[in-house]
Amino acid sequence: MEEIFLKIEKAKNTAELEEIRILVLGKKGSLTAKFAELKNCEASVKKTLAKELNTLKMDFERALANKKEWLSMQELEEKIKQEKIDVSLFNTSNLRGASHPIMLMLDKIVGYFESMNFAVKMGPLVEDDFHNFEALNIPSYHPARDMQDTFYFKDNKLLRTHTSPVQIHTMESQKPPIRMICPGNVFRCDYDLTHTPMFHQVEGLVVEEGKDFVSFANLKFILEDFLKYIFGEVKVRFRSSFFPFTEPSAEVDMSCIFCRGKGCRVCSHTGWLEVLGCGSVDDNVFKAVGYENVSGYAFGLGVERFAMLAFNVPDLRSFFESDLRILEQFK
Ligand code: PHE
Hints:
single chain; alpha+beta; BirA Bifunctional Protein, domain 2; 2 domains; two-stranded antiparallel sheet; binds phenylalanine; ligase
């Protein structure tokens, strides 16, 4: 047994220890054999021998356990020595995220209209032809369809080109009065300095019962107030325009926030920036949803354009390139 204890002492790893254990206490182990011989012994020796064997077994097991603990500590120390901790490594736990500039602007826009008692409505991104075009007074033959480069699927389905279909869904499911905005992303097949195939819009709709209840003056008031809330003191003008779903229609310009109307590169030296489309809701739209004897106004804007102007970002595409050097400036 002496040499066994010596072996334990010399063992270099836990695998060697296990070999020793099997040698002694395994099925064919030396100590196991001695225990087996006990039954052939005479009763007088049996008791003392059994006691001796048990003590031996306990000593052996203790020696094994001690050595095992020592070895595993040794192994751990070795492992720690080999694993270098690179303290110069960048620590990410202190990185704080921030809202994307588009979301910052979206929140600000939505915040304004919520404070003016507008409900916020959402709708599907995949629409049918009826909700995206037909119900908005844009029949299939109408040249106005070319204004919006549409991504089409099969079976009359398409990616919505504006959030106006949410207004149609809302009017289909509830009666006036309606006072809502619909923020969300929209899709058009277009890509350059000022266009990306996906962008964000906020459109608004107000409908009341009665032919003359909602007037263009109401629309003018709210949009002027809204633009001043977002951009500060600006002059606002309404320019007559055309949209199939509104009549009369207007485009809204505000005085250039960079040159204060004097004329610069951003406003193409006109002193004005075009920021909104709007108008009184066309009767054909009300007809499409089964409304009668109502009046209303609608407006729409591109969130990216607002963010570009408010944060002075010259290239729209930089909003979508996930460049942290740009995004971090909006913390
Ligand atoms: N739906 C229009 C667009 O996507 C925006 C708009 C809405 C214009 C309401 C006028 C009135 O271009």
